[in-house]
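Fill in residues.
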């Protein structure tokens, strides 16, 4: 997968004003996107568009079936609607955020997530909070938090046969007939360890509260640049989660995969695995930009979503 130079893109008006400490934000080009099949998305999109248009902002809405959120093959340019936008409002859940990040590709536009799903770690604002959140954004009272993205490439006989850009995690899964597999991990071309079990999750910090957390991995602050390696049901009890710098180069080899062994990126099948395949995971050039306001912070989200800090009665 080719590497785009994210520094070459001009910063958005949101980024420019935030860096300059500008107190207010004038007219913006705003895109409202999300899956059309989610109940309430159409009504909410129309309501947000009406409010923002009345304030002088330019708003374009694209609600489409989940299957339509596909970037052009090997394309590094974002879709026109996202590339032209200063702000993308995503309606849905965390899955909608992941699809939007992948859809925007190598030209990432700042995102405000509105949760129409269940948990909502990334889609942080409820529909009732949208109006006040946008008021905060337009007044310049927000944080633009950058999150690391990654590239996964599968190399077979010296050739890249599949590649993808992701935000949460790459998973190597044993699959049918559900016998244990071995996964060799190389760090900067040096053999680090061999995992034996049902698979391995290579997660970013933003993905640490997703599949990684369900598998018993740690929560890692989203703004850190690191990879989290969490084995799935390891055969060796000393195989525990490892957190490593994202600046290193990681390659994984599955010498004898099962018939159904696969590489999965952000819940999407990248490719079935064959013996001798090399899976390379590395930090990507683009960064995912998520908007936070005073209504929500990192720890308040963890308390709300994971019920941290509950008092004993």
């Amino acid at each position: 997968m080719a590497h785009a130079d994210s520094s070459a893109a001009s910063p958005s008006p949101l980024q420019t004003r935030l860096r300059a400490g500008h107190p207010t934000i004038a007219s913006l080009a705003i895109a409202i996107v999300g899956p059309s099949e989610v109940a309430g998305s159409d009504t909410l999109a129309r309501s947000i568009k009406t409010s923002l248009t009345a304030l002088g902002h330019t708003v374009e809405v694209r609600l489409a079936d989940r299957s339509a959120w596909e970037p052009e093959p090997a394309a590094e340019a974002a879709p026109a609607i996202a590339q032209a936008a200063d702000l993308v409002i995503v309606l849905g859940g965390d899955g909608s955020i992941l699809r939007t990040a992948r859809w925007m590709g190598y030209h990432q536009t700042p995102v405000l997530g509105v949760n129409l799903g269940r948990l909502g770690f990334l889609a942080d604002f409820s529909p009732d909070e949208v109006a006040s959140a946008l008021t905060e954004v337009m007044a310049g009272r927000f944080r633009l938090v950058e999150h690391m993205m990654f590239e996964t490439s599968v190399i077979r006989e010296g050739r890249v046969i599949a590649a993808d850009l992701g935000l949460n995690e790459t998973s190597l899964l044993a699959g049918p007939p559900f016998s244990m597999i071995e996964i060799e991990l190389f760090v900067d071309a040096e053999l680090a360890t061999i995992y034996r079990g049902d698979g391995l999750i290579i997660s970013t910090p933003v993905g640490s509260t997703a599949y990684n957390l369900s598998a018993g991995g740690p929560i890692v602050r989203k703004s850190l640049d690191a990879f989290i390696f969490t084995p799935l049901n390891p055969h060796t009890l000393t195989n525990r989660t490892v957190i490593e710098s994202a600046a290193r180069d990681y390659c994984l080899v599955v010498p004898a995969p099962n018939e159904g062994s696969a590489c999965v990126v952000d819940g999407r099948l990248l490719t079935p695995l064959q013996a001798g395949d090399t899976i390379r995971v590395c930090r990507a050039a683009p960064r995912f930009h998520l908007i936070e306001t005073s209504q929500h912070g990192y720890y308040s989200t963890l308390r709300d979503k994971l019920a941290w800090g509950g008092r004993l009665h």
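Residues 1-9 have pLDDT under 50 and may be disordered.
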